[in-house]
Amino acid sequence: MADLEVDVALPHVSNGVHDTVTLGAVTSRVELGSAKLDWTGSPRVELGYRLPDGFGEFDIAYRFLGSDGTGTVRGPFAAPDGPATLTSGSTFKWPISTTRAMRSRFAVGG
Questions:
Q1: Rg, Å, the chain Cα set
Q2: Tell me: the pLDDT tens digits for 33-83?
Q3: How far apart (Å, rounded) are the C-alpha atoms in residues 61 and 96?
């Protein structure tokens, strides 16, 4: 058996990446920003095998989610020559493996 599904997603990544930087006698806190990520499709592919007589099944699936975004950094410390372009991206891939419980068929008779 095989299955394919695609989810539509708008990923959001928030970060708290920052550090203190000293340049000469000036110490400043520098924070790394992130651009808004774009809408994306997140495909999931599943392959499996069903055992005969209803004895269960084995499945393995793979999900992918990736998006990029671009923004503009403005402010007095953005760049020495004016606004700067900021590009953010994220990619997530994960395999999913499942084994469904075995079920038996019972004959009812008398």
A1: 25
A2: 778 888 999 898 888 888 887 777 788 888 888 888 888 877 666 666 667
A3: 5
